[in-house]
Amino acid sequence: MINFLNLEYFLVAAEESSITKAAKKLNISQQSLSSHIANLEKEFDITLFNRSSPLTLTYAGQMLSKHAREILHLRDETYRELADIKDFSKGRLTIGTSHTRGRRVLPEILPLYREQFPNIELHLKEGNTRELDTELLHGEIDLIIDMLPIKGENIETVPICEEEILLIVPDSLLMKLYPGQVPEIKAQLEESADLTLLADCPFLLINTGNRVRSLAEEMFADAQISPPVVLETENIETVLALAMKGMGATFYPKMFMTESDEWRRALTQTAGMGLYHLHHPKAHGVLGIGYHKGHYMSRATQEFIQLAKEQLQEYFTKTSRETEP
Q1: Of 97, 199, 221, 296, which residue is least crowded by CB atoms under 10 Å?
Q2: Last residue of a domain, which of 84, 101, 135?
Q3: Residue 198 located in a structural domain
Q4: Residue range 234-282, pLDDT digits in tens
Q5: pTM higher than the cut 0.90
C-alpha cells in the first residue's frame, strides 16, 4: 500500500534536487528523509533517484513524480468533497489576488462572508498575475480575483464588473517634452490618449508578470513606441506616488480610486496631474473570478463567488459614478 507521506517527501526531494535541502525544507533529518525514499523504492522494487549531485530522477522516478502529484491531488479532492458533504459548517477557502486589488475588493466581500459562514477557514495568497495563475493551476488556491481573461487550461471564469485602466501624466513632464505646447498636448491626450505623443516620456511601471504591466506593453507595441522605463516595482501605489512627484507617467486602474481614497483626493486636488481615458480596447476590461473547473468546487467556494458578484457589482456601480477623471 502506498504511503502518502512517502510520496510527499519524494516530491520535495525531486523538486529540491538535494536530500539536504529537502530535509531542511521539511524540517526533518536527512536520515529520516532517506528512509522515506528507501521505503518507497522498496514498495515498487525500483530505484527512483540517481545518487548524483545534484540529485536527479531516474526514468522511473520521473514517471512516479508525474503520477504522485495526481494521486495526492485526488486524495485532497476526495477529503474536501467528503468533508463538504458531511458538514458545511466547516471548510477552507484560499483566495488569490494582487496586493492592491485585494485591498480594494476584499473589504467589500470578506466581512459579510465571514458573518454568514463563520466556520470557514479563510486564507489569502497575494502575488502577481503569473504567480497566481500557476497556483490556481496546481490547486494551491481555490480561486483568483483578476482581470479577464485568466490564462491556463481548464480555467472557468465568472465576470463581475467592468474595469478601466487610466493614463496618468504629470504636466511637468509634458512641459519638458513639449515646451510651450502643454495645453494643446493635454487637449490631444484628453481627446484620443494617443500614446505616440509619449514616445520619449519616462514611465513608471509595475513589475513584469502583473496584468497592468502586460496591458501597458501591449499598448506600447500597438503604438510602435518604446518609452524609457525609469522604475519598476511590485507596488502600484508606489508607482502612483512617484508619478505624482513628476518622476514619470504611469497606468492606474480606475477601480482603485474612490472618494474616500487619499490618492483620489490628492489627484483631484493637486494641480499639474492629468488623468486620461485610454481609447485602446486593452484598457477596457472585465474584473472576474477564475477557478479550475477540473477541481472539486466546494460549497464554500460557490458561496463566495455568488456573494462576490452581488457585492462587487453593487459597489463598483456606485463608485464608477464618483471617480470620473
Answers
A1: 221
A2: 84
A3: yes
A4: 888 899 889 988 999 999 988 877 544 555 555 555 557 888 999 888 8
A5: no
